[in-house]
Write a structure and sequence with these properties.
The chain is mainly α. The protein contains five helices and no strands. The C terminus is likely disordered.
């Protein structure tokens, strides 16, 4: 439990650095291209940085090509949540296109933690599953 709390703290720290990196790249690209294209490119670049920060610092595990290739797949959920949030905040709520990506990113944090942990930590999915109760165990 203590190790998982440490991971959550490190994940939040990495998330802050990653969000700052993402937002900085987004703001640099925003004047030169449509906001959604700037958002997508910033997201992809920040995701590569996120992979390495999370493997080395958050989960203290070895990065592998397999994890690197799977990490973006798990971030599809994150991308969908952030993209839908971005669209809703800009289109329906009238939020400034320079601020909306930051708000959408905050909403996606819990989902990103759970998904990245399952990909980057060997056995994390099994560790998160509850033990079956004695009455649910098969005697066969």
């Amino acid at each position: 439990m203590r190790e998982q709390l440490g991971q959550i703290f490190r994940f939040a720290l990495v998330g802050g650095v990653n969000t700052g990196t993402f937002f900085g790249i987004y703001l640099l690209l925003h004047p030169w291209m449509p906001y959604f294209l700037a958002y997508t490119l910033a997201f992809l670049l920040a995701m590569v940085g996120s992979f390495f920060m999370n493997t080395y610092f958050t989960y203290r595990t070895k990065p592998t090509w397999k994890k690197f290739l799977l990490f973006p797949l798990t971030n599809v959920t994150n991308y969908v949540i952030q993209s839908a949030g971005l669209y809703a905040l800009v289109t329906w709520a009238g939020m400034d296109t320079r601020i909306a990506p930051l708000v959408a990113a905050v909403v996606a944090i819990p989902f990103t933690y759970l998904l990245s942990r399952r990909i980057l930590v060997p056995g994390a999915a099994r560790a998160e599953e509850p033990e079956p109760s004695p009455s649910a165990r098969s005697t066969v």
